[in-house]
Amino acid sequence: MSPNLGLAHVSTDFLIAALLIYSLALLAFAGDYAFGRPRRKAAAAAAPVAERAAQFAAVGAAGAASAGAAASDGAVLDEPAPAVTGGPAGPANPPGSGARPERPAGAFRAIREAGPWVAAAVSLSWLGILAHVVAVTARGFAVHRAPWGDMYEFITALTCVAALFFGYILIKYRAWALGVFVMGAIVIALGLAETLIYTPAGPLVPALQSYWLSIHVTAMTLSSGIFFVAAVLGIMYLVTERYRKRVAAGKAEPNPLLDRIPSGSQLDKLTYRAVVFGFPIWTFGVMAGAIWADQAWGRYWGWDPVETWAFITWVIYAAYLHARATGGWRGPRAHYIQLLGFASLLTNIFVIQIFVTGLHSYAGVQ
Predict the structure, then answer these.
(1) What count of other Cβ atoms lies within 10 Å of the Cβ of residue 52?
(2) How far apart are CA 260 and CA 36, in angstroms?
(3) 263 near 78, Cβ under 8 Å?
(4) Are 237 and 335 in contact (CB under 8 A)?
(5) How far apart are CA 366 and CA 352, in angstroms?
(6) Helix pair angle (179-196, 151-173), 10° resolution
(7) Does the pLDDT of residue 64 top 50, yes or no?
(8) Helix 151-173 crosses helix 116-143 at what angle (to 10 degrees)?
(9) Does position 98 have pLDDT exceeding 50, yes or no?
(10) Other CB atoms closer than 10 Å to residue 326's CB: what's the count?
């Protein structure tokens, strides 16, 4: 069936719109980084310690954590919102009253209280995500199949998943401080896709014309988008930890901008949880690919370069999770493994699938 060129142009228009909106969101995150966070930090420092402690939101926790737990868990990704008190008489739940502590502010209230920069950044991020989803969906309808049959489609879908996953992190963990870095990486990746590897809508090569494309490649796209976010967080961790160690040793002067990045413990935990979320999806994708290979070529495994490199990537991420779970690895060593896994993933996409001869290939990219 011939592609619908009208819908293909609509997809391109929405992708360009998404790129522009993401760029505006990036500027808003940068504005919050420069102007919003210092003001919130000053306001939080002026509030009573007991009131601020009740507002700490731990990563992955549904309720508020105590000040001591927040300090040890390293889970606060932004300055706490002003504490809610019971009026002039003092806190609503004074110590020793036996009353349950105040619940932390809801996501939308927290966004409003974080200031206009954060409100604009989060709103623009989700508006860009909406345009991005429409673009990927329109591309799928235009080509009458899953919209990741060539390299261009795969990258646009991957960045869409990364943006969706980061949007979830924004809302759940109040991760405004990460926006300028993650959204910046998404803007760069999507911009390169639109300018360097754009591929017009067209039919699939015969080897990819199977319903397994919607199963196998979907899983690989979802997990790759999640690993993309984890890689950005891992790089942030290594940069900030090196900076903070140098400052502590007196080898570098404090940098107000770098000081506003979340702590290494926070970034470490969030990176780990992202990989834990994405790894089972990657595992399913590798298994689905083996089943597809059996149907297409009569064997589950043939040491084709692409499938072999996908397995190497799986081994590296498995080693990262194993080191964290059983070896107790923390700090830079674990992040080097995680980033090695993402480097292996990128090698498979941009080197193996393009320059190495094998049974796998993307239409329009040779």
Answers:
(1) 20
(2) 11
(3) no
(4) yes
(5) 11
(6) 170
(7) no
(8) 150
(9) no
(10) 8
Q: CA gyration radius for the chain?
A: 23
Q: State residue 359's pLDDT score.
A: 56
Report H helices in the chain. 5-31, 37-46, 49-53, 67-73, 107-113, 116-143, 151-173, 179-196, 218-248, 256-259, 264-297, 305-325, 332-347, 353-355
pLDDT in tens, 208-245: 677 777 888 899 999 999 999 999 999 999 999 999 98
Return the axis-axis angle of helices 218-248 and 151-173, rounded to nearest 10°: 60
27-31, 198-202, 247-251, 323-327, range with the lowest pLDDT: 323-327
Burial class (CB in 10 A: 0-12, 13-18, 19+), 276: middle
**Six token digits for residue 297:** 């070529």
Report which secondary-structure segment, H or E, holds 78: none
Please tell me the distance from the alpha carbon of residue 214 to that of residue 48, in angstroms, as a whole number.
54
pTM, two decimals, is 0.81
192 token code pair: 């390169």
Distance of alpha carbon 333 from alpha carbon 197, whole angstroms = 34
How far apart are the C-alpha atoms of 28 and 21, rounded to whole Å? Answer: 11
The sign of the CA dihedral 98, 99, 105, 106 is: positive
Three-point CA angle 332, 165, 240, nearest 5°: 25
Greatest pairwise CA separation for the chain in angstroms: 77
Question: Residue 99 corresponds to which tokens in the numbers above?
Answer: 């009353």
Per the prediction, the chain carries an average pLDDT of 81
Q: So what's the pLDDT on residue 350?
A: 86
Of 79, 81, 50, which is closest to residue 67 (Cα–Cα)?
50
Query: How many residues are given for the chain?
Result: 366
The single-letter code of the amino acid at 136 is V
Which tokens in the block code for residue 176? 């405004």
In the structure, what pLDDT confidence band is assigned to residue 329 with cuts at 50, 70 and 90? confident
